[in-house]
Design goal:
With 277 residues, the protein is mainly α. The chain has 17 helices and no strands.
């Protein structure tokens, strides 16, 4: 199974970030050189769930509003798309990943006290293993069309029976190869057993449990405005996962429903503005 290396732009930005005083101008120039990446970045940065006090009009402006570390985390997540430029996955797949990532970041900030940048990376990469499977496993595109409605656990089992591996494992291996940290790696890998982890049947690091809960809730929000979303649309299963995620994080239903309504309203407003331009 071939896992793509990190795009050159990330390696270059990492080198600049390692300097005692990172050159913001040089970092901005690198991002701007990739027009598709730059456009996606500005769209993601101005998503309602990123919580900016004013719209970011440029990479430099975004850095001023959000800070360099947070910007790098976003670029790192979005750049995964360029690593799979030859993958047949539709734009809606990557757009949905950006939305889930943004909601993960928002939820982490509101409810957990954990690193919202890690939450963003988890949201952005949680289904990235699908792109690896698409590029390496003949027939996976047809398989996912027929089985994509299944829960994570059932889908993982069916993938392993059919292909000898699963996209959650491949996504986790990519996160490990890209040095994204154990919390990102385990959160991606453990999605098929999230229920067992969050109900205490299986033991896992507390932070990973929280990040898994955040991811489940973010996918619940995403499902409302991304009719495309083909994963985890087993309604009973998804509702149960939302329930145990809320319980784990001690969030009441009313609070979550109110937050979800606010996010959906903000998303709808953003889409209307995009149509008018």
């Amino acid at each position: 199974m071939i896992i793509p290396p990190q795009p050159n732009i990330l390696l270059s930005i990492q080198k600049l970030m390692g300097q005692e005083e990172p050159d913001i101008g040089a970092i901005s120039t690198l991002v701007k050189e990739d027009i598709a990446l730059y456009t996606l970045f500005l769209s993601a940065a101005n998503s309602p769930w990123m919580g900016l006090s004013q719209p970011a009009t440029s990479i430099e402006h975004a850095i001023m509003l959000m800070g360099l570390d947070r910007i790098y985390s976003m670029v790192q997540g979005i750049a995964i798309r360029s690593a799979f430029s030859d993958c047949p996955l539709q734009d809606t797949f990557w757009n949905a990943a950006i939305d889930v990532a943004g909601v993960c970041s928002d939820l982490a900030h509101r409810f957990s006290g954990l690193d919202r940048d890690i939450a963003y990376s988890i949201g952005m990469l949680h289904n990235a293993g699908m792109a690896i499977m698409m590029n390496n496993q003949p027939g996976f595109d047809t398989f996912i069309q027929d089985h994509g409605f299944l829960s994570c656990a059932k889908l993982c089992s069916n993938e392993r029976n059919e292909f000898g591996t699963d996209h959650y494992l491949q996504g986790a291996l990519m996160a490990k190869q890209w040095n994204l940290g154990e919390e990102v790696v385990f959160s991606i890998r453990c999605q098929p057993i999230a229920q067992k982890i969050l109900t205490g049947e299986k033991k896992m690091d507390e932070n990973v449990c929280t990040y898994l809960s955040i991811l489940l809730l973010a996918k619940n929000v995403s499902a409302e405005f991304r009719k495309y979303w083909a994963i985890d649309t087993d309604t009973d299963e998804a509702n149960y996962e939302t329930e145990i995620a809320l319980n784990y994080m001690h969030i009441n239903h009313g609070e979550f429903d109110e937050l979800k309504e606010d996010l959906l309203d903000a998303f709808a407003t953003k889409k209307e503005k995009e149509k008018s331009h």
